[in-house]
Amino acid sequence: MIVVNTETVPGYEMLEMKGIVQGNTVRAKHAGRDIAAGFKNLVGGELKGYTELLTESRREAVERMIAQARELGANAVVNVRFSTSAVTAGAAELYAYGTAVILNKID
Amino acid sequence: MEALFSLLFQTLILVPLGFIFGRFSEKKHLKSLEEREDRNSKILVTDLKSFTMLSSTDQRAEMLIGEVTIATDYYKSFVGKLRNFFGGEMIGFETLKMRARREATMKIIEQAQEKGFNAICNLRLETADIGGSTLSRKSAITVSILASATAYVCNKA
Lengths: 107, 157
Known about the structure:
The complex is a heterodimer. Chain A is an alpha+beta fold. Chain A is about 35% helix and about 40% strand. In chain A, strands 1-3-4-2 form a four-stranded mixed sheet. The radius of gyration of chain A is 18 Å and the shape is elongated. The two termini of chain A are about 20 Å apart. Chain B has a four-stranded mixed sheet with strand order 1-4-5-2, covered by helices on one side. Chain B has a single domain, classed as Translation Initiation Factor IF3 (2-Layer Sandwich). Chain B is elongated, with a radius of gyration of 20 Å. Chain B is α+β, with helices and mostly antiparallel strands. Chain B has three helices and five strands, in the order αββαβαββ. In chain B, helix 1 runs parallel beside helix 3 (about 90-115). Strand 2 (about 10-30) of chain A pairs antiparallel with strand 3 of chain B, so a sheet runs across the interface.
């Protein structure tokens, strides 16, 4: 599965467009991590717990998007965009969307 | 004593009430979305910036906008609070957000259908935070989505 955030893929031609595919996830860290992040806010530095949270969420959202593309019979997702939002304090949503297409390698 | 009473009231009355009515309205919404998506499945929806397969005879294009705001029910907020304490995936909010996005996209598709277009490109989905509700723990959780796209006529292969 080719996943890119450009509209075209070099060396490939677009055979068919399948339409939009998307994946999202809302996740939270346990209260311990929230408290640790609160302390970290006092001294500054990377909030490792929240970095982890975002990485996990992004992976999950992309996986779900790819699963949808597979279901449509596509072999690539082009023009992938990410969007994040806060649902409540301490919880983040990650949303990935793109266009599922069938690509063919140009010889 | 009063605080204890209000806590009991919340968990014993509002949570089951939210569970029953929230489930009901969510099922109804998902059913209507599925029906409308089936009806309009022929429209090509992409987030590409260019007009792919643009018709050579009918070169109209128009920007369309769809907005929607959905509220959670008390049950979902309650489960969300628990999840926020222990950490992990908040499935209730995931479906809530996706419902809002599907609804906003559907509004655009229906407008396009009405105006005689058969394709939509450059779909953008924006999350709007009205009233800053996500910042305070006390106020109700609402989800607002603003969708914009360009409708055009494509000649499908």
